Amino acid sequence: MSILKNALQSIRQAYLSLTGTKEENEDKLSQQRVQLFEAIKKASEDGTITAEEMEEVKQMQKFLDITDEVMAEVKIKVLKDLIQKILSDNVVTQEEVALVQEVGRGLQLSESDLARLKPDMDKIEALYEKQQNA
User: pTM of this prediction?
Assistant: First the structure.
């Protein structure tokens, strides 16, 4: 079972065990939101985010009252962090280029979100091309 799938199961169980009003559970919901964001980040690092997992993320997003805008920002940050990690050693492999592309697809980013990430993606591709031509 994948990292993200395990985390989603854990978050779902915690959510289902909540009792009381939304206000009474806000601290627990907040913790679950953080767990969800961290799970997405960890899953991006191993490159496996499936369409099925993203459907589950969307369900948890609803349960945890996370807006589409907030989720989009989280996804963008996850991919930007991955790109920065890859660029940190000034060496980009073909596998790393493929990883970023795969994670980008897995996160199901909108066209406008992908456009925001284009400068970062271009850095990776430029460095990779420079290394290939050296």
Answer: 0.83
